[in-house]
Design goal:
six-stranded antiparallel β-sheet, Alpha-Beta Plaits, elongated, 4 helices, 25% helix, alpha+beta
């Protein structure tokens, strides 16, 4: 905790700082983030059929999301570099949008919420980039953390209908579990 109004990324003088996580024990941590890319139905159909001029949009977006999760600390200034254990980026294609869902896991001293959000956002941006020649009016929206487990703050789950969130306090040491050692694509 910081000495400055409860903000952990500020020191006593109000200057930005990286939170010291060295005293914490590593625990299994998992986060799920989702977002949507709204588009014309013809665009969603072309992506689903794999008929876009630039190739397999979702395959490229999946790899982009995985890479983004692994490089989050290079993009977000005060994020800790983490040893990512697993990343899954999946898509649900609907009539006028594609939902992106990213799941990130680690066995570390701090959570992977930012990694999951970054993976989702970069995958969505990649969909836009690869399909913009067909539909420049696409909108990336609704990017949010849907679930997180592990660590001192415990479990967080967003309610699908109400958009509300619930938190269950955790205990920073008893949820240690093995983490997949490879990065997954499906």
């Amino acid at each position: 905790m910081s000495d400055h109004a409860g903000f952990t990324h500020l020191d006593a003088s109000g200057r930005a700082r990286m939170v010291d996580v060295t005293p914490k024990d590593p625990t299994h941590r998992r986060a799920i983030a989702r977002g949507r890319v709204y588009m014309e139905s013809e665009t969603a159909t072309a992506i689903a059929r794999g008929s876009m001029n630039k190739g397999d949009v979702l395959a490229v977006a999946r790899v982009a999301g995985i890479q983004a999760a692994k490089r989050t600390s290079d993009l977000i200034p005060l994020c800790h570099p983490l040893m990512i254990g697993a990343v899954n980026v999946n898509f649900t294609i609907e009539d006028d949008f594609i939902e992106v869902e990213s799941t990130v896991e680690t066995l570390d001293r701090t959570g992977v919420e930012m990694e999951a959000l970054t993976a989702t956002t970069v995958a969505a941006l990649t969909i836009y980039d690869m399909a913009k020649s067909m539909d420049k009016a696409m909108v990336i929206s609704d990017v949010a953390l849907w679930e997180k487990t592990g660590g001192k703050s415990g479990t967080f789950k967003r309610e699908a209908d109400a958009g509300e969130a619930t938190e269950t306090p955790g205990n920073d040491g008893d949820d240690v579990a093995s983490v997949a050692a490879e990065t997954l694509g499906e």
